[in-house]
Design goal:
The complex is a heterodimer. Chain A is mostly helical. Chain A has 18 helices and 3 strands. Chain B is built from 7 helices and 10 strands. Chain B has 2 domains: 154 residues, P-loop containing nucleotide triphosphate hydrolases (Rossmann fold, 3-Layer(aba) Sandwich); 64 residues, no CATH class. Classes of the chains: A mainly alpha, B alpha/beta. At the A-B interface, helix 1 and helix 8 of A face strand 6 and helix 2 of B.
Chain lengths: 448, 231
């Protein structure tokens, strides 16, 4: 019977077109993902080559003055792009994946992003998460809105209802057939992604696949509940499409609007201004006071004393340091606000499967806000490490040749933090159970 | 066996079926005649369990329909006025699908025999139902009902729209099922078909069974006269 139910479902030309469309858009998303990976790899390669050439050129220009040389030289930290990032690009196209910093004040450099074409950002990416979150539900609706209702309208259901003494079982079979077809399409696309994008079959991938599976199941549970109301096909279609618009467009926009107003980040501007003022006003202030503050921050450098010259690199970098120190509280507040925004959006998303899905896929793929915040933290550590490495040589007025420049290659940040499977799955499981039970109760009443 | 005990169905102020009492024994074919809205289809739907009675009860082989709506389905088969099946499946596949719903897994040969017995030409077995005429679909419907081996058969205007040859073939099958002990209730507008097939005929008017006649005791012309006088 299953075989015939499959044949009956798949023989409809509308279903064939729908499945072909899903597979084609899935393949397009993989191509988009591959382009993203290629661009990221190209950027990293270009940055590595640029850093090498840039250091070499500046060492030639400023062989005797390390302070001046390091005024110019940038060192790059790369937020490693894992192949799975390409399935859910998330914020990776908005936020920089490479931070190139000098040892000067960090705060002013943190937000020097790569230039992106705004029209590309406006259009967004047709990545796999887009196909899954936006398009799969549309086809689930198209495949399920008329289960039972169409048969009831055409008269087939009367014969089926008389033939079967387990109508609920028949209803489940009809849903199962459609569910298996959609899940097959999902895993076929993911299988192709593994081959085409060379995604390793690790925990991250299986979690990505598992959560995607649950999202599909959620939409089937919702359709199951709507079908259980025993209304007409047109009523079911309108109800499900309204649910799609609400979950995919209206609620995410409302959540975003709420988060922006509930957690404004004026600290972003204040941090930049404070850092700039913190540094610039030191030119007109007593050098000793600036250097004292610097020594309070780094007591290990006190042995370098107080230079007498009008200009000295110790004083200059102390001024730079003061910019960061004076913007520290705003920077911390900004960081906390972003964390709060992230936590709030995750909390609210628990009740909105589409938003939850987007956040979780980004988190699993390492392209969400949390990844960006961790990368920014790592950039801070990277910058601090560079300062601590170069400060003694600068203060000793060592020549450029005192450093082994060939050792300064680009560094990589690998985000190994892992999303909890429970927190990723639980909201979806609850929603699935809710709609399944509601549908089950109504169907049992209908068929008993 | 089919039994209606004071079976009544009311839709608001409209009395669709009023206190119907009826027994159809195994081997009997009872034809319900009446105009549109007389209560024929309501009676069929009450026996099928598609609607609940306002009062009274419908029984299939002694089991109350409203109390055991799933259980009674094991005992009955049904052919509607228009048999609508799955157009993308062949006649053979439709029969296989609907038989398996009833728990019967027939071989391809058995399914072919059932379709042939219902009068369908063998070259149509593997054609998609989308290309079938109404008569051919009715025959698949008959095969589905026969395949269920039910002891009660409910027919709602089963020969409506069929050509005379197909109607005759249909009558033959109905008679042979009755001869095998099936109790059959048939709602129809076709006086002559009712007279030809049925063992008993009931005439309904405004939800009431106003007259019950043995088909043997009345000629076709007399039945027509009685029908016209009654309705």
């Amino acid at each position: 019977m299953f075989k015939l139910a499959f044949k009956n479902f798949l023989s409809s030309s509308g279903v064939k077109i729908g499945i072909a469309f899903l597979i084609i858009t899935g393949l397009v998303s993989l191509v988009v993902g591959n382009q993203f990976l290629a661009k990221q790899a190209e950027n990293v390669e270009a940055t590595a080559a640029y850093q090498k050439a840039h250091i070499s050129k500046n060492v030639q220009y400023h062989p005797d003055e390390l302070g001046l040389l390091l005024y110019y030289v940038k060192f790059s930290l790369v937020n490693q792009t894992e192949p799975i990032n390409s399935l859910s690009i998330g914020q990776r196209d908005v936020n920089p994946s490479i931070q190139s910093v000098t040892i000067r004040g960090l705060e002013g450099q943190k937000y020097d992003a790569d230039l992106q074409n705004p029209s590309n950002l406006l259009l967004g990416n047709i990545d796999f998460s887009f196909v899954l979150i936006y398009l799969f539900p549309l086809f689930i609706i198209a495949f399920t809105y008329n289960i039972i209702s169409e048969e009831r309208e055409s008269g087939t259901w009367k014969i089926a209802a008389v033939q079967s003494s387990n109508l609920f079982g028949l209803i489940l079979k009809l849903f199962t057939v459609r569910f298996l077809v959609v899940v097959f399409t999902l895993f076929l696309t993911l299988f192709l992604a593994v081959i085409f994008l060379k995604i390793p079959l690790n925990t991250r991938f299986w979690l990505f696949g598992g959560v995607s599976f649950l999202y599909i199941l959620f939409w089937f549970a919702l359709s199951f509940w709507v079908a259980s109301m025993s209304k007409s096909s047109s009523y079911n279609a309108v109800t499900l499409l309204s649910a799609w618009i609400l979950l995919i467009i209206v609620l995410p926009a409302m959540v975003n609007s709420y988060l922006v107003s509930a957690y404004p980040v004026p600290e972003a501007m204040e941090t930049t201004v404070k850092q700039r003022n913190g540094y610039h006003e030191k030119w007109d202030m007593d050098k000793k006071a600036t250097i004292d503050k610097f020594y309070n921050h780094y007591p290990q450098f006190k042995t370098f004393g107080y230079p007498k010259e009008d200009f000295n690199w110790l004083w200059y970098y102390a001024m730079q340091q003061m910019g960061d120190d004076e913007a520290a509280s705003e920077s911390k507040a900004l960081r906390e606000k972003l964390e709060m925004r992230n936590r709030a959006s995750t909390r609210i998303a628990s009740f909105i499967p589409s938003v939850h899905m987007q956040i979780q896929l980004n988190e699993i793929a390492g392209s969400g806000l949390s990844n960006q915040l961790r990368f920014m933290d790592e950039t801070g550590r990277f910058h601090e490490q560079l300062r601590l490495q170069f400060y003694p040589a600068i203060f000793k007025e060592s020549p450029a040749s005192s450093q082994q420049w060939e050792k300064f290659e680009i560094e990589n940040f690998s985000d190994n933090s892992m999303t909890s499977a429970t927190s990723a799955a639980l909201p979806l499981v609850v929603a699935i159970l809710l709609f399944s039970v509601l549908g089950w109760v109504r169907f049992r009443t209908m068929v008993s | 066996m089919l039994e209606a005990r004071s079976l009544t169905k009311r839709y608001g102020s409209h009395l669709a079926l009023d206190n119907l009492n009826l027994i159809i024994k195994p081997g009997e074919i009872f034809a319900l005649l009446g105009q549109n809205g007389a209560g024929k289809t309501t009676t069929i739907n009450l026996f099928l369990g598609f609607i609940e009675p306002t009062s009274g009860s419908a029984l299939i082989n002694g089991i109350a329909v409203e109390e055991h709506p799933q259980e009674i389905k094991k005992h009955l088969a049904y052919i509607p006025e228009t048999v609508t099946l799955y157009p993308n499946l062949t006649g053979l596949e439709n029969l296989q699908y609907f038989s398996s719903l009833a728990g019967f897994n027939y071989s391809k040969q058995q399914l072919s025999d059932l379709l042939a017995h219902a009068g369908l030409q063998s070259q149509s077995f593997d054609q998609k139902l989308a290309g079938y005429s109404k008569g051919m679909r009715q025959k698949v419907g008959i095969a589905i009902a026969v395949a269920k081996k039910a002891k009660v058969l409910l027919l709602d205007e089963p020969t409506s729209g069929l050509d005379p040859k197909a109607s005759n073939e249909f009558s033959e099958i109905i008679r042979s099922l009755a001869a095998e002990g099936t109790a059959i209730l048939m709602a129809t507008h076709d006086i002559f078909r009712a007279r030809e097939v049925a063992t008993s005929i009931g005439i309904m008017r405004q939800g009431n069974l106003v007259s019950t006649i043995s088909a043997q005791d009345i000629s076709a012309n007399e039945l027509e006269q009685l029908y016209l006088q009654t309705v």
